[in-house]
């Protein structure tokens, strides 16, 4: 659960902006589980700009070709200090700091034929000029058949670990799926962790079409991996994640997470890649749907809005303690129902939307904290149509709690009861085994509940 600068600032975030978000997180969101801040791409490019990347950018590198922060945007990095002073400030707040990286080695290091730290090799020896990123011009690939390639990643990670970084989002790894590069980066992190005695989480991007065939390899080498391309504040983007998270939910394990991408809530687009300066265009109900789906699918939660200037509704949604509890403390997460709904019959039937139901079991513990719903269940009832949807008797209670417990006494709690705009009428009706969960689901909305004995 953290914050990433991409949706707000694209390639241009500054030290002051990062610290403003860190202080806001510590004061308003840390108790709800939010604890990580990530500086996204091009923190080493002094010419970085909104809405794109710069070809032949004068990247700031050390004598071994390793990226260093732009001291204009990050003044505490001046004099070769790197991100250590900034990491120290973030750690004082009880939070973690991460950065974005691109796969490979900077073109400038290759052009200058800089030495690979600790070896007799040079950047030209280890570069792979064929496997380069299609959308960012900064780097060449690395030839993982050359021993100096591993040494270059080892040196890069040693530098990052010496700064005290906790998290690395490494891009251009999965589309296409670069098996050797991912494994090499993992080995470099493991060496740095052993040397400096601190954990570094690895997040892989982008997603594209991600096959579950890779799951064992991904669990061995990373803590997070994207399962889609970039997501923005459009209902169409959220809708696409239903199928992706349903595919990946059976493979989610604590500590190794399929990632449905950043949460475009609050104040985004200040200097971002896409769109103008704005509060998120998602409706309040669409925001609730996103959070409930991400949690039921156990996706990591990385919000993209500038926290100090985001609207109060967005912050209130992020502060909901159910987010951490369900993401960290649920098991057996699954899609139960996905049915297209129509008005009328036959050739005159008009498509309305999809009724989708997810369920999960509550664990005894959630992220080291006793679960408020241990022994119970969670359910999320989604509606994708453009009008409200009356549940009537569409979902039986026993389909969530199981046939063996269908006659037990169950209490329903609305997990969004205290959320902005709360007006849910979700409830249990009927007797015994005939009980149903009923209510009205708003357009593009969700009813998200816990069920407890």
TrEMBL record:
It holds the Pfam family Melibiase_2. It comes from the Bacteria. The keyword Glycoprotein does not apply. Keywords: Glycosidase, Hydrolase. One of its GO terms (biological process) is carbohydrate metabolic process. One of its GO terms (molecular function) is hydrolase activity, hydrolyzing O-glycosyl compounds. InterPro entries: Aldolase_TIM (IPR013785), GH (IPR017853), Glyco_hydro_27 (IPR002241). Belongs to the glycosyl hydrolase 27 family. This is Alpha-galactosidase. The lineage of its organism: Bacteria, Bacillati, Actinomycetota, Actinomycetes, Bifidobacteriales.
